[in-house]
Amino acid sequence: MPITVSARSYGWGFRKNNDHLPPDIGILAKEIENTSTYYVGNTLKKEVYLTFDSGFDNGVLPQILDTLRDKKVRATFFILGDMVKRFPDLTKRMVDEGHLVGSHTYSHRNITKMSEEELKADLCRLEEEYFKLTNKPLDPFFRPPSGEFNRESLLTVQKLGYKTIFWSLAYCDWNTGDKRGPEFTHEYVMKNIHPGAVILLHTVSKDNADALSKIIDSLKDQGYEFKTVEHLA
Fold first, then answer.
1. What CATH code is carried by the domain that includes residue 195?
2. Residue 2: inside a domain, yes or no?
3. Is residue 10 part of a domain?
4. Cα(11)–Cα(192) distance, rounded to whole angstroms?
5. For each of the chain's 233 residues, which pLDDT tens digit applies?
6. 99, 139, 202, 207: which one is catalytic?
7. Does a structural domain hold residue 55?
């Protein structure tokens, strides 16, 4: 059955607070109900989930991988087809160093504008290219491009065997022209951190790469444990 392309779609977002509590996602809670969708972990435990959207590399990703390796932290990367095709060595490095690698689609198209058949073909194409490169199946976790979704598309993703992973902490780090410095990145994360936080970062931000070591150290100092998204379910 095709997705109803005309169905109302949403961009993932929420109301922040200054109390180190999970954000309020409002009406989106009803939209994601019973769709194998997660955006936060156990809010009673000091756990945090580092996730990266990684469509391509502009020279920043190796530094991020170096830091994760040196700090002995596993993260989750959501990749596009471009990452597999143009940056195979970095894709294999994610796998070899123990990170989870999930789908961000092959083409970064808006999934609410695709039929069920188109979405299935797009996800399967990434699965096939990834398996050819790594000889391993893609981990069954999915993040919608640009956070755009509707209930119908999430149900299709669920039917295809994926769990959808949104986030509870993020900022516009994908805009590489808006450089605020690593101190801003560190302060923003620490100001908005909360138990069970799923942190979204992009691997094209030099600020992220430069701040990552300090972020990890600060979170550990506050008693946070790093987990991968497989523990969300």
1. 3.20.20.370
2. no
3. no
4. 20
5. 444 444 689 999 888 887 899 999 999 999 999 999 999 999 999 999 999 999 999 999 999 999 999 999 999 999 999 999 999 999 999 999 999 999 999 999 999 999 999 999 999 999 999 999 999 999 999 999 999 999 999 999 999 999 999 999 988 776 666 677 899 999 999 999 999 999 999 999 999 999 999 999 999 999 999 999 999 97
6. 202
7. yes
φ, ψ for residue 81, nearest 5 deg: -60, -35
- Per the annotation, the verdict on 202 as an active-site residue is yes
- With beta carbons less than 8 A apart as the criterion, state whether 130 and 168 touch: no
Question: Phi-psi bin for 181: left (phi > 0), alpha (psi -120 to 50), beta?
Answer: left
Q: Which two tokens stand for residue 45?
A: 């435990």
> How many residues are present in the chain?
233
What pairs with residue 37 in β-bridges? 164
Alpha-carbon gap, residue 209 to 194, rounded angstroms: 21
Catalytic residue among 53, 122, 139, 173: 53
Tokens of 222: 């506050």
Query: Has residue 14 been placed in a domain?
Result: no
The alpha carbon of 114 is separated from its chain's Cα centroid by a whole number of angstroms, namely: 21
Number of domains in the chain: 1
Please indicate whether residue 53 is annotated as part of the active site: yes
What is the extent of the structural domain holding 149?
28-231
For residue 11, how many C-alpha atoms fall within 13 Å in the half-sphere facing its CB? 1
